[in-house]
Design a protein that fits this description.
By secondary structure, the chain is α/β, with parallel strands linked by helices. It contains 13 helices and 15 strands. The strands form three sheets. A seven-stranded parallel sheet has the order 3-2-1-6-7-8-9, with helices on both faces. A six-stranded parallel sheet has the order 12-11-10-13-14-15, sandwiched between helices. Helix 1 packs across helix 13 and helix 9 packs across helix 12. The chain is globular, with a radius of gyration of 21 Å.
């Protein structure tokens, strides 16, 4: 098939650190190319891909030169223009329009958007299906008017749990995110430390991970992004507990840097308090043979095989108890769960079926 992959432009593909949507778009693109499809990837500068790559802006938003991003906003009397930094909204519209112009010309069998709701306005204007992977978009209530306006177009959910956030959409498939399993080598022998990996934000529960680690007498490593809007949360709920020995923040790590921590961890703590539509960390951990202890929110009960690849809990006291039962988990079962259900190749096969279904509906014989 001729597939247009419309990736986000916040980070280059593949992202070196944070950038989950970009990572999924990259993994899917590479897997589809390997399976013989003609994929055209629309992404930001700095991207590396085996697909037909179209650079729609010279830098990703996160890697734009600081001097330009910090350019003062103000009137320039010499030009008569209001000067300022690049406008992310304009850059994203240029990005989308580059793809849609080519779709209008009939180049693609399907356009696959990973852009939240921002490409939906073109859905009725192009001759091929526009498939939107939600990536959690339906969790944000202000997006609902746009999603509902185009609700009859094809949507893909990452989990069954994600569908509960907005059940009125036309879901053509549930396709879990897939990882490149070779990036997460299997390790059966574990150390005794626990690991938290993810954004250090309230809904991700790093403070809860600290509490469980302390109560269970285990060392805890925390890795992930500290976002500006959550600096106060980090400063008050996380930082006071860091001692460099028992509770340690190791920074924002690339996948390559994070993989060794997954391999040797006794478990990953995933104590979220929101309906997360997926959880790449839970699959990356299990691929390494490392179980996950998670709260019963979002997709986690769909990703973890209870009692075999980890534990799903309803309280922090239960989480502490499960830390003491980690010896009952078989590391090979963790790995096999990912091999069977959450690899990039499994994901690509799921999207192939979704693409064909969308095309068949758009062009019935």
């Amino acid at each position: 098939m001729n597939v247009a992959m419309l990736a986000p432009i916040s980070w280059p593909l593949p992202p070196s650190g944070y950038g989950p949507w970009e990572l999924v778009a990259h993994n899917l693109t590479e897997a589809l190319v390997a399976r013989g499809h003609n994929v055209t990837l629309f992404a930001a500068g700095g991207t590396k891909s085996s697909a037909n790559f179209v650079e729609t802006c010279p830098y990703a938003l996160s890697t734009w030169p600081e001097a330009e991003m910090n350019r003062p906003r103000g009137f320039d009397p010499d030009t008569g223009l209001l000067e300022g930094p690049p406008d992310a909204r304009v850059l994203e519209q240029l990005h989308i329009s580059e793809c849609m112009d080519r779709a209008m010309a009939g180049e693609f069998d399907v356009v696959h958007s990973h852009l939240h709701v921002h490409a939906l306005g073109f859905a009725n204007l192009i001759p091929c299906p526009l498939i939107t992977t939600l990536h959690g978009s339906a969790w944000v209530r202000p997006t609902h008017p746009m999603l509902l306006k185009y609700k009859n177009h094809p949507f893909v959910s990452l989990s069954d749990a994600e569908r509960t956030l907005l059940p009125d959409l036309h879901y053509i498939a549930t396709v879990p995110n897939g990882i490149r399993i070779e990036n997460f080598p299997f390790e059966p022998e574990k150390d005794d430390y626990l690991l938290f990996a993810g954004r250090l934000s309230p809904e991700k529960g790093p403070d809860k991970a600290i509490e469980v680690a302390k109560k269970s007498g285990r060392r805890l490593l925390l890795a992930g992004l500290i976002e500006g809007q959550y600096q106060d949360f980090y400063d008050t709920k996380v930082k006071p507990h860091l001692d460099g020995t028992n509770i340690e923040y190791v920074g924002l790590l690339s996948q390559q840097e994070l993989a060794p921590l997954y391999r040797k961890a006794a478990a990953v703590l995933f104590l979220i308090n929101w309906c997360e539509p997926f959880g790449l960390v839970a699959t990356e951990s299990q691929a390494s043979g490392t179980p996950v202890i998670a709260t019963r929110f979002g997709a986690l009960p769909e990703i973890i095989v209870e009692g075999k690849t980890g534990f799903v809990v309803d309280s922090l006291d239960q989480a502490v108890k499960r830390v003491g039962q980690l010896h009952t988990i078989h590391t090979q079962a963790c790995r096999q769960n990912v091999v069977d259900r959450f690899t990039d190749n499994v994901m690509a096969a799921g999207y192939e079926r979704a693409y064909r279904a969308a095309v068949a509906k758009k062009n019935p014989k």
